[in-house]
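Researcher: Here's a chain I'd like modeled. Treat it as a single chain, no partners, no ligands.
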Amino acid sequence: MRSFLALPDLARAVHTLILRRKPVQKPGTFAIWNLASFHAKILKVATTVASITGAKLDMQSSVRGYELADPKFKGFSLSTAAFRETFGFEFQWDLQSTLSEFDANMPDSAMPKGSHAPAKNSAGDSIACPVCGSTDSQLVVDLGEQPFANHFVNDTEEALESPRFPLKLVRCRVCNHYHLSQVASRSELFEHYLYRSGTSSTLKAHFDWLAGKVQEESGNLKSGSVLEIACNDGSQLDSFKALGWKTYGVDPAKNIAEIAQKAHTVRVGFWPLDFPELPKGDALTAITAQNVFAHVPQPVDFLKGCAKVMGPKTKLYIQTSQCNMQQLGQFDTMYHEHISFFTGHSFKKAADLAGLEIVKFETVPIHGESCLVTMEKSGDNKDNSLEKRLATERRDGVTSDFFAERFRSRAIAIRDWVTREIRAFRSKGYVVGAYGAAAKGMTLLHFILGASQCEEQFLDFVLDDADLKQGTFCPGTEIPVFPSAHLQTLVVPLRRPVAILVLAWNFFDEIAKKIAHFGLRKRESITTIVPFPEPAVVRLQKDGTHRTLRAMPNDCTSVPNVLRNESRSKTVLVTHARNEDMLMPFFIIQHAPMFDEAFLIDFESTDRTVQLVADYAPACWRVVNSSQGQVFDAEVLDQQVSQIESWYPNDWVMALTVTEFLIFPNMRARLFRRQLEDPSPTILKHQALFMQGYDGVPLRHFRSLLKQRHVWVKSTWFYNRVMHRQTTNHIYGPGRHEYNFHGRGKDTATRLVNTEGFIAKWHWTPWPESAERIVHVGATIPKSDVDRKRGFQHTANLLAGLEGIHKTKDHEIGLELEELQDLCDDESHPDEDREHVPAVFFREIGGVCHA
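Model: Modeled as a single isolated chain. Structure tokens:
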């Protein structure tokens, strides 16, 4: 228990003291007043936060009173009686109203203020902004110290001794430019470069497309001239040359430039670089700069160098990768080569300082999604695409301090998810490799290795078809690089499955084809882990198809919180219980984030059931007395349930027993989306799984029961529960498994089976506690229901007692051992009616079962 004081109550209390202060009775004395708006246990605060925001609960320690209680943790509360009685004061704020006010004022309420506000240049020793020169920067994410991402060498000792440098992303608060905190040596990075753009068929197709676009926007010239800055091996220039254009290039990597020089006029060096062959003014039709603008320490000088050789009609095309890197949390695009991560705002600032105009701001589907910005010396041809981009960034929060907090959290979540997946595959005996020795892959790899004590053989190999990387080792590791064909000759028993982490995820389609070509000749499937743009585990099949096994949940509460939308129908839970303190902790944790209100009909419980709800359930949960005392008459109960539901005719309502857990990730936001798409009366049917479990493993209370017991019995008996909205002319069938039209005219309700959720029915697990529960419940069922076989699962073996129920379980489950399925097993295949269940399960638990 803790005491909490809401700021408005504090302000009122101070105001009261000032206005009604009493004279000092004795010089040198003073009074101490305890102030507290309310008292609550920490877990109750957490569940109430979950009920208001929809955030899932992740318990990191045990709750007092259960098996892992630690006596050194003690609660307390403050008595405010003296202050209230002395001043006639009443505290007005409670747990629900206080937390609701916090949520209503997000993100402002989450950001430190006053003396706690981040100081100017909170990023520490960061360089000044490369665009505007400001030193007022904010730390976004720290990926630790990492080696240069392209430092591939053919000696393990040299690879392990690769020098490491800080890799931090910061945001300029003045122009909203995102950049690295430190600039590594450009000469060390680029003068001997291993990346070649011509090794990817996807890039070659893009080069052809861009050349055609430039030609078209230049008036379909048959003999234009183009300068490519950072021309690499000349692959883009090849596309222009094929159109009949004169081609010129600049690149600092002598080893790569020599390849381009075979077909084009190319000079070695950093831009700006002048050379006599380069046309200037209107003789230069276009300049292209792909994936280089982010590399330069002084981008404004880079643009000024372009402006110097441009004529009034010359078009400058700047392309930067991962245009929505900030919004999508694609931290893997951070490496020492990339100093800058431009936003629309910082692109505009740089162009303004260089005397150029952005005439078009586009995105193109390459390298994830790239920015393609067209600049000219005048704005005569300017459209409104830049203004749209700026508005989008403001809406997404890219220009706010709070955005950095979300970015950092997302980066850590992805890193941890990938780590858990890889460890889970290793624990199951998989051979685990990776595909794509790209710089982005090395960033992700070292972010993982740096944050966890990974075993040496975290990855067995990395596949990449770049000639210059063959026979080398990943920077800072002993992980070898092999060509794709290595999959074909992999010396591994075919019974050992293979998992591949796709590091170059922006070329997933191309990579999937190569994996299938080389790896699936003797194997039926290979599993891939795809970290971006939506982290997922995808199985590649021999027939060329692929299937998503699970995805990383991304159910972060939106800002502003969509649950606060006044047009959203609320979600209301009705349940009933008598002596359910075994399941109640799990029931609370499961449903706290899902419902706006909840009612527990109590059948005169004599255990801790009611106290557990008072202590730990959200503040919006209420206990109401059963209308029939402790007698459990099904029809009378259904009437009481229906009466409570009738109080919410326009909201989503659902009745569950305490043994039924609704598994429906991000439920309220998804229901609101459904409501907007179809506002008509709706009945959602949820199918149930009968859960088994590994009952030899002790339960951990107030943790997800589904994570601890995830085996289910495949049964032909269909067991349903319904959630409904705006259905006042419907009534429940016996047991509330069906919901039938009971009115005049036509039934206009939309009836759907919910493929975004299911019911986990806890009947045979946890064991033996559930056996005791069956006896206790069965004892309250009236003879009239027993005669009609209502609640037969509770009454069938009542006379035999616990021993009889144990025998019944052994008999029923023993007949169906071959039908037991584990939701954690990737090879598990539910029937067609339940094929959505595995994806829902993994989204609910947040990834793999064991790691």
